[in-house]
Known about the structure:
The protein is an alpha/beta fold. The protein has 3 domains: about 1-45 and about 180-190 and about 210-250, FAD/NAD(P)-binding domain (3-Layer(bba) Sandwich); about 65-175, FAD/NAD(P)-binding domain (3-Layer(bba) Sandwich); about 250-365, Enolase-like, domain 1. Helices cover about 25% and strands about 30% of the residues. The protein has 10 helices and 22 strands. The strands form 7 sheets. Strands 6-13-7-8-9 form a 5-stranded parallel sheet. A 5-stranded antiparallel sheet has the order 18-19-22-21-20, sandwiched between helices. The longest helix has 15 residues, at about 225-240. It is globular. The mean pLDDT is about 95.
Amino acid sequence: MSGGVGYLLKKNKVSVFDGEARLAGPGTVAVAKDGKPVASLSAQHIILATGARARTLPGLEPDGKFVWSYMEALVPDKMPKSLLVVGSGAIGIEFASFFRTLGASVTVVELLPQILPVEDAEIAALAHKQFEKEGMTIITGAKVTGLKKGRDTATATVEAENGKKSELTVERVISAVGVVGNVENLGLEATKVKIDRGCIVTDGFGRTDEPGVYAIGDVAGPPMLAHKASHEGIVCVEKIAGLAGVHPMDKNRIPGCTYCHPQIASVGLTEAEAKKAGHKLRVGRFPFMGNGKAIALGEPEGMIKTVFDEKTGELLGAHMVGAEVTELIQGYVVAMGLETTEAELIHTVFPHPTLSEMMHESVLDAFGRVIHI
Length: 373
């Protein structure tokens, strides 16, 4: 995949310089490698896309052996028989699910009372139940306060909210407590670029407070997703190029996908967020158990949930857990982009037999018209 991107750069006559770059004055970028100057580049528009790295906690710094970040977990030196995952965001849950599927004994420790903290609480609870059914141990409302490394294993001290401590011995630990933007050593100190919580502050077109300097992708803040970064780059460049009709990035319409088993996908506001924003709601739900395709696939566990504004019929959010929901979510993303209301979704014909029929049924349920439950 990386080679393919390199080919596209070459095909489109993009000049690539191998080295470390930093801003060196208005409209200037200095490139160096191994401490030696490589090039001095001038441009009217400079885009920062330096990405992010794993956040580390004191005592849980990745050491390449016992403690892994997501980088080491992608290329493990061995298949661990036992694994502790610290953090239950998308990255932590994906690795926990992956290694559990391969047969490892997996324990997840989460500081908050809910795993997958950014997801709808009802969907996260269903996922939690399914993960435990598959043999995963999940400890919420707890933190890892210490780690003792032995010859072949490491022993973690886990402290619960009530202060009770326990010890867990595993072969490997994955630290998945979030990521932080790569904002250091870019020469930002001499600019008006603002940093907030480890990320560069931008507007909907990627513009910073420094004229001619832009930022996109993970370094520009959450949601830290590849498809967000790609679209953000396109919006930024098209705005610079002066294309007509370019819309600013709307982060509320970016789908989030977690590639675990079962899969999780969402877009827009959770039920709790919508209530907090002052909306009076209509909420629909439809279980996988009521869908013929899900049963035929042997995947009857899951649910699709839709959140609407009761007064206007606006689709505020959609949340899913179950088989192939990362493929289904785009239907709701398109609907939100078109400002679709429940009326259009109710009168849309969904093909049978498909998992997508559950999307229709969830909408129908929100308005008291569900058919197959």
